[in-house]
Amino acid sequence: MTEISPEDAARHRAKMEKRKAVQDAEVAEKSVEKGLLIVHTGPGKGKSTAAFGLALRTLGQPDGAKVGVVQFIKGAWESGERRALESFGPRVEWHSMGEGFTWETQDLARDIAAARRAWDKVREMMDDPAIGLLILDELNIALRYDYLPLPEVVAALSARRAGLHIVVTGRNAKAELIEAADLVTEMGLVKHHFKAGVKAQKGIEF
Amino acid sequence: MTEISPEDAARHRAKMEKRKAVQDAEVAEKSVEKGLLIVHTGPGKGKSTAAFGLALRTLGQPDGAKVGVVQFIKGAWESGERRALESFGPRVEWHSMGEGFTWETQDLARDIAAARRAWDKVREMMDDPAIGLLILDELNIALRYDYLPLPEVVAALSARRAGLHIVVTGRNAKAELIEAADLVTEMGLVKHHFKAGVKAQKGIEF
């Protein structure tokens, strides 16, 4: 057990009193309530996973708000997070509209058609007042490959109704989307077990 | 709808065929199965949220593996993600062992004692073979303030049993922990709505 002198304790208390005053003042000056446009981008892990974590936060609210998920790239394959979220029944509406990664399909016209179908579904869900959080998984990939017109997408997301939070995931988020967003997190890759020859692990990658 | 010439389609296909070959070769050369030590750090959002998203991935596995959560800083307050994860019943074991942020308690001895109790709980859960994923939420904060001896913590986490994934969250992860980890993601803050005077939003921050 670390020894704490009375001087250490007093110094710590004084420092933390100051810190708390700053913190309280910062919280007090914020007042706007709005549905946020959130972007998770960058080469690191956790972009989609953090979006699904946010789904939990919505599902834990007693107001009964629903979570919508549209996956732009992933197809109908099963995943742990999908199975787990579907245990919340009608509070989660999940649509995997992709045809797989673009290097799997190798068919540009098919990729574009799939992205358009997914986007139509998004527009429909944006109009559903029961949905409090909408996750647009890998939309950044569809935008990066120009499967959808960026101005159309940014305009529609910016015109979301009050109270609807939207999370867009995927690498290489477009500058215009970042500009329109309220909250942008860049997931940076510091270290990855694949580099050490460790394969995809159950419960982590799938 | 974007026009695609036959040349564009062929070029796309050739590029993607190459990309797929690289991808397949990369997957094939990985063979090690192990429980991962994962660190989510950095100033951005999503460190804890991505950890809870991983919990979903474990809970969606049909093997019935349990998720353990030990919160080092947060106290007994309710949160959306906790309520949602607790709907999985005995598959989630959640312990909020903190006394609040250190600038709230302003009492160093109390913070150290709380961190030690939390760490004892972690050691106990690391020995429980039913647990497949253990989330040590904000452990990095406890390590940063020297509430726990870093060598003891790193040694114990490194000696985890095979098959146990551990996720450590919090800003300012120690270099020794990053060194011991298999997978490290740095969440970078690109843009935050607090700066625009928008307050903490239900379903996003709590």
Automatic annotation (TrEMBL), chains A, B:
Pathway this chain belongs to: Cofactor biosynthesis; adenosylcobalamin biosynthesis; adenosylcobalamin from cob(II)yrinate a,c-diamide: step 2/7
Keyword Phosphoprotein: no
Provenance organism: Ancylobacter vacuolatus
GO molecular function, one term: corrinoid adenosyltransferase activity
EC number: 2.5.1.17
Top-level division of the source organism's lineage: Bacteria
Domain Cob(I)alamin adenosyltransferase N-terminal: start-end pairs: 1-27
Catalytic activity: 2 cob(II)alamin + reduced [electron-transfer flavoprotein] + 2 ATP = 2 adenosylcob(III)alamin + 2 triphosphate + oxidized [electron-transfer flavoprotein] + 3 H(+); 2 cob(II)yrinate a,c diamide + reduced [electron-transfer flavoprotein] + 2 ATP = 2 adenosylcob(III)yrinate a,c-diamide + 2 triphosphate + oxidized [electron-transfer flavoprotein] + 3 H(+)
Keywords: ATP-binding, Cobalamin biosynthesis, Cytoplasm, Nucleotide-binding, Porphyrin biosynthesis, Transferase
Chain residue ranges for the region called Disordered: 1-20
Subcellular location: Cytoplasm
Protein name: Corrinoid adenosyltransferase
Biological role stated in the UniProt entry: Required for both de novo synthesis of the corrin ring for the assimilation of exogenous corrinoids. Participates in the adenosylation of a variety of incomplete and complete corrinoids.
Root EC class: transferase
Record-stated family: Belongs to the Cob(I)alamin adenosyltransferase family.
